From TrEMBL:
Natural source organism: Orthonyx spaldingii (Chowchilla)
TM stretches of this protein: 41-65, 85-113, 125-143, 163-183, 192-212, 493-514
Keyword field contains Membrane: yes
Membrane topology: Multi-pass membrane protein
Keywords, alphabetical: Glycoprotein, Hydrolase, Membrane, Transmembrane, Transmembrane helix
GO biological process, alphabetically ordered: lipid metabolic process
Cellular component, GO, one term: plasma membrane
Gene: Gdpd2
Keyword Glycoprotein in annotation: yes
GO molecular function terms attached to this record: glycerophosphodiester phosphodiesterase activity
Broad class of the protein's primary localization: membrane
Protein location: Membrane
Family (UniProt): Belongs to the glycerophosphoryl diester phosphodiesterase family.
PANTHER family: GLYCEROPHOSPHOINOSITOL INOSITOLPHOSPHODIESTERASE GDPD2, GLYCEROPHOSPHORYL DIESTER PHOSPHODIESTERASE
Protein name: GDPD2 inositolphosphodiesterase
Length: 541
C-alpha cells in the first residue's frame, strides 16, 4: 500500500507511539519493513466510521437534553433512585467522542507524514467496545424512547443549515490526507475507488441544501408573534413543582398559564400533585412510613398537610439551577406544603393568569366524583371561567353543561368530521409538524406544545407560529426576544454558494499542491536508490 518516505522525524515518531503503542523511529520502521497494508486501511476505515458514529450520538445526546428530566422521573419511578442522568450521559459521550477523535487525528497526521497506520490491538478492542456501547445506546433509545427520533428530525430544522456548513468543512479538510494517500499508493483500483466515493460524497453535500427546510428561513417581517409561556407545574427549575412558590415564580417569568395536575384526597379535597405516589416530591417516607406505596388519593387532606413538599427540591436538586438559588429562595422552598386547588385558584386569580390542569388518575373508579368535586371548587372560587383551561377528557360533556364558560383544551388533533369546533389543542411538540402548526394558526386554533425547554426548540416552534409552549425553563425563554437565528432565503442561498465554491477551491488546491510535492520527492528517492545500488555492487566486488 502506501510507502513511507523514509524520513526520520521526531514528530512522526511521537505520532506512531500513541497510535501503534510502540516506540518506532523512522529508521527502525524502514529496517523492519513496516508498511500500511490492506488490513491497516480497513481498520482506519473502521476508525473513521466509529468517529462518525460517536459524533451522531453526541448530536442525539444534545437533542435529548430537552427531555432528559422526563427520563430522570421515569428512572425514579422504576428504581426509586434520583440521579441527574445528564451528567452521566455527557461524561460518557465526551469520553467516547474524544477517544475516537484523537485516534483519527493521529491517523490522519501519520498519513500526511507518510508513516504506517499500524493500529495497536488494544485500540482495536476499545474501538469495537465503543461501537457496541453506542449501538446499545441507540437501541435503547429506539425501544424505550422512540419519540426522541422525532425530536432529532425536528432539530434538523434548527441545525440543518449549520450542520451542512460543518460537514462540508470537515470533508474539505479530508482532501489533504486523501490526496496524500492517493499520491503514495500504488494501487490504481484503490485510487479510482476512493476518488469516486469522495467526489460522490462532495457532490451530494454541495446539493444538500435543496433538501434542507427550516421554518426559520424567512423574512423578518414574516416572523409570527412570540409564543406565550405556560409554566409546567409552575417554574420547576426555580421552585418545588406544583407549589404556590412555583406558581409565583412562573408569574415572575411572565408565564400566562399555570399548568398543573390535580388529585382528590380521600376526604374530597382537590390538591396539586403529579405523581400517583408521594415519594418523589414529599417526605412521606419519614412521616408515614407504612403508607409510602399508597396512591396519593388514599391520604386525607389533614395527612397531606403534614408533609413537606419543598425540602426534596433542595436535597435532590432536580435541575442544575437549584445551585444558584438565593438564600431567601432556599428558605422559602424548604417551607412549601402541598397546596389545595382552592389555594392555587386564589393565587391564579390574584395574578390574573390562567390555569390548565389534568385530573389524575384517569382510571380511578371514582373519577366522575373527582370531576364533580373539582368543578365545584372552581365554581365556588369565583375565578372567571375563561381563565380555566380544562384538559381531562373524561365526562367533558358534563363539564360543558355545568360550567359553559370553561375553555376546553383537547389532547388530540382535530378530526375531519368534528361536530364541535376545536379551539385549543395541547400536544407533545413531536406530534405536530411546522406545516400543521401553520394550518392550525390560519384556522384560528390555538396550539400549545409541551415540554419545550431548549432555546433551539423554542426558536423552531416560534418560527412555525405555535401559540404557546409548556416549559420548565420559563426563566430562559422569557429572555429570548428573537429566535436564535433567522435567515432570509436570499441570504441562505448566498451562504450556500459561497461555502460550496470555497470548498471546491480548497480541494483543488490540496490535490495540486500535494501532487507537486510528490513529484519533487520522486527524483530524490530515485537518486537515493541508484546510489544505494552502486554502493551494494562495490561491496560485492
Amino acid at each position: 500500500m502506501a510507502d513511507p518516505p523514509g524520513c526520520c522525524s521526531t514528530c512522526a515518531t511521537c505520532l506512531l507511539c500513541p497510535y501503534s503503542c510502540q516506540w518506532i523511529t523512522a529508521k527502525n520502521e524502514k529496517r523492519k519493513g513496516l508498511r500500511t497494508t490492506k488490513c491497516d486501511c480497513s481498520w482506519f476505515f473502521f476508525l473513521f466510521c466509529i468517529f462518525l458514529f460517536t459524533l451522531v450520538w453526541l448530536y442525539f445526546a444534545i437533542i435529548i437534553l430537552n427531555d432528559l428530566h422526563n427520563f430522570n422521573e421515569f428512572i425514579f419511578k422504576q428504581r426509586k433512585l434520583w440521579l441527574d442522568w445528564s451528567l452521566v450521559l455527557f461524561i460518557a459521550t465526551a469520553v467516547l467522542v474524544s477517544y475516537s477523535s484523537v485516534l483519527l487525528v493521529l491517523a490522519l497526521c501519520l498519513q500526511l507524514c507518510g508513516q504506517p497506520l499500524k493500529l495497536h490491538w488494544v485500540h482495536k478492542i476499545l474501538l469495537i467496545l465503543t461501537a457496541l456501547v453506542v449501538a446499545a445506546a441507540f437501541t435503547g433509545l429506539g425501544i424505550k424512547w422512540t419519540e426522541e427520533w422525532k425530536s432529532a428530525w425536528i432539530s434538523l430544522q434548527a441545525t440543518g443549515p449549520f450542520l451542512h456548513i460543518g460537514v462540508v468543512g470537515g470533508m474539505t479538510l479530508l482532501a489533504w490526507p486523501l490526496a496524500s494517500f492517493i499520491y503514495r499508493t500504488r494501487s490504481t483500483g484503490l485510487k479510482v475507488f476512493l476518488l469516486l466515493v469522495y467526489c460522490a460524497a462532495m457532490i451530494a453535500l454541495y446539493l444538500a441544501p435543496l433538501a434542507i427546510t427550516s421554518p426559520c428561513i424567512m423574512e423578518e417581517n414574516q416572523l409570527p408573534p412570540k409564543p406565550a409561556l405556560v409554566g409546567h407545574r409552575g417554574a420547576p427549575m426555580l421552585a418545588p413543582e406544583n407549589t404556590l412558590m412555583s406558581l409565583h415564580k412562573a408569574v415572575e417569568c411572565d408565564a400566562q398559564v399555570f399548568e398543573t395536575d390535580i388529585m382528590v384526597s380521600a376526604d374530597g379535597v382537590p390538591f396539586l400533585m403529579h405523581d400517583e405516589e408521594l415519594t418523589r416530591t414529599t417526605n412521606v417516607q419519614a412521616v408515614f412510613p407504612n403508607k409510602t406505596a399508597l396512591n396519593s388519593t388514599a391520604f386525607t387532606w389533614t395527612e397531606l398537610q403534614k408533609l413537606d413538599a419543598g425540602s426534596w427540591f433542595l436535597e435532590r436538586k432536580p435541575f442544575p439551577t437549584v445551585h444558584s438559588l438565593s438564600a431567601e429562595d432556599r428558605h422559602e422552598a424548604a417551607k412549601q406544603k402541598i397546596p389545595s386547588l382552592g389555594q392555587a385558584l386564589e393565587a391564579v386569580k390574584q395574578n390574573n393568569i390562567s390555569i390548565m390542569f389534568d385530573l389524575r388518575p384517569e382510571n380511578h373508579t371514582d373519577y366522575q366524583n373527582f370531576v364533580n368535586v373539582t368543578l365545584g371548587v372552581i365554581l365556588q372560587s369565583g375565578i372567571p371561567l375563561q381563565q380555566v383551561l380544562w384538559l381531562p377528557d373524561g365526562f367533558r360533556e358534563d363539564v360543558k353543561q355545568q360550567a359553559p364558560g370553561v375553555q376546553h383544551v383537547y389532547g388530540r388533533k382535530r378530526l375531519e368530521n368534528e361536530q364541535e369546533p376545536v379551539l385549543h389543542v395541547n400536544l407533545p411538540y413531536q406530534d405536530m409538524s411546522s406545516e400543521e402548526i401553520r394550518q392550525y394558526r390560519q384556522d384560528n386554533i390555538s396550539v400549545n406544545l409541551y415540554v419545550v425547554n431548549q432555546p433551539w426548540l423554542f426558536s423552531v416552534l416560534w418560527c412555525s407560529g405555535v401559540s404557546s409552549v409548556t416549559t420548565n425553563a420559563c426563566q430562559v425563554l422569557k429572555e429570548m426576544k428573537h429566535p436564535i437565528w433567522l435567515l432570509p432565503s436570499s441570504t441562505y442561498l448566498m451562504i450556500w454558494i459561497v461555502v460550496d465554491c470555497v470548498s471546491l477551491l480548497v480541494i483543488i488546491w490540496a490535490f495540486v499542491l500535494l501532487k507537486k510535492c510528490s513529484h519533487r520527492r520522486q527524483p530524490a528517492e530515485c537518486d537515493t536508490d541508484v546510489l544505494l545500488t552502486k554502493i551494494n555492487s562495490l561491496m560485492q566486488e
